[in-house]
Design brief:
The protein has 332 residues and is of the alpha/beta class. The protein folds into 2 domains: 139 residues, 3-Layer(aba) Sandwich (Rossmann fold), CATH 3.40.50.720; 173 residues, Dihydrodipicolinate Reductase, domain 2. The chain is 34% helix and 26% strand. A 9-stranded mixed β-sheet has the order 14-13-12-11-7-10-9-8-15. A 6-stranded parallel β-sheet has the order 3-2-1-4-5-6, with helices on both faces. A hairpin with a 4-residue loop joins strand 12 and strand 13.
């Protein structure tokens, strides 16, 4: 086993804890330090995970022990922080969305390329067992010709949002749940079916009060292949939801329960049949891949190019929701 990659977590919140909990489960990462603006949060995180704490992001970048950074910071900071980390020679794992604009995504990707550092974007849901199985079904023709895709990825977290937090800032969450949740399905959709070419989106605030962000977004999608799709995402559903359905000429496939259950219904069959899946820990898997690329070379499955392609769809959705018209997706 190669020497563990010494990493720092930047931005301490719920998801930084998820990553930190995954690190000792076979990722070949070692958490050596952490930073966030709150001294109390820093101290509590450092004590819980047995790492040092740094007073600032700059202090992390100047730390010679740190080889890589795990960025779980507000969305608007991703681009500049990825560039700064690359210029300091640190490898980067950044949570989705990669950036909020294509221009930022391209700039951050190029900075990592010039610095010869690994860049990985946290789009782990394509690794869910059902999505891997769906990809195989498409490639081996089990579904026939795929005609439509539809999905919903939503949560009830809007009910716990507090006015004044960064997630309630419309600059951080344009098109509401699309930015933090829907972007996952965008990545999965493009992983399965190739580039999305055009979108038409509606985004509304139906339930939330005391904040300016939308809570419900619906999008029609057209792929370059001609396949059509629908994506729904919201902050205010009764239950966390992650559904995805592929409709083909020979069969239809239904993914449920965070990609842990998959059903297939072939032409002429009256009922859906379960597909056997092997469970995986998608967080451990993507972090282990990141560490492997740092130590042994190679390129992460989701790097800057893939992250930017997803941001291009997000940018088009935001524009469509604002203008009320269909918008072409442009990876400029």
């Amino acid at each position: 086993m190669p020497e563990p990659v010494r990493a720092a977590t930047v931005g301490i919140g719920w998801w930084s804890g998820v990553l930190a909990d995954a690190i000792p489960k076979g990722t070949n990462l070692e958490l050596v330090t952490c930073t966030t603006r709150s001294p109390e949060k820093r101290a509590a995180f450092a004590e819980k995970y047995g790492c040092r704490q740094a007073e600032s992001f700059n202090a992390v970048l100047e730390d010679p022990e740190v080889e890589a950074v795990l960025l779980t910071t507000p969305h608007t900071l991703h681009g500049e922080q990825v560039i700064a980390a690359a210029q300091a020679g640190k490898h980067v794992f950044v949570e989705k969305p990669f950036t909020l604009t294509v221009a930022e995504g391209r700039g951050a990707t190029e900075a990592c390329r010039r610095a010869s550092v690994v860049l990985s974007v946290g789009h782990g849901r394509r690794r869910q067992p059902a999505n891997r199985a769906l990809k195989a079904m498409i490639e081996n023709g089990a579904l026939g010709r795929v005609i439509q895709i539809e999905g919903n990825i939503s949560s009830s977290t809007g009910f716990t949002l507090k006015p004044g937090g960064w997630r309630t800032d419309p600059r951080e969450t344009p098109a509401g749940a699309m930015t933090g949740l829907g972007i996952h399905h965008v990545d999965t959709f493009q992983y399965l079916l190739g580039p999305i070419a055009r979108v038409f989106a509606l985004s509304r605030r139906q339930v939330l009060t005391g904040m300016e962000i939308d809570d419900t977004t619906g999008i029609l999608l057209e792929f370059t292949s001609g396949i059509l799709g629908y994506l729904g995402t919201a902050f205010v559903l009764a239950n966390r939801t992650n559904l995805l359905t592929l409709h083909g000429t020979e069969a239809q496939a239904f993914s449920e329960a965070e990609g842990s259950r998959l059903f297939l219904q072939k032409k002429g069959e009256q009922d859906r049949s379960p597909v056997l899946l092997q469970p995986v820990d998608i967080i451990v898997e993507e972090l282990a891949e990141f560490a492997s690329c740092v130590r042994q070379g190679g390129r992460p499955e989701v790097g800057g190019e893939e992250g930017t392609a997803n941001v291009a769809v997000l940018e088009a959705i935001v524009e469509s929701a604002k203008t009320g018209g269909a918008v072409l997706v442009e990876v400029r």
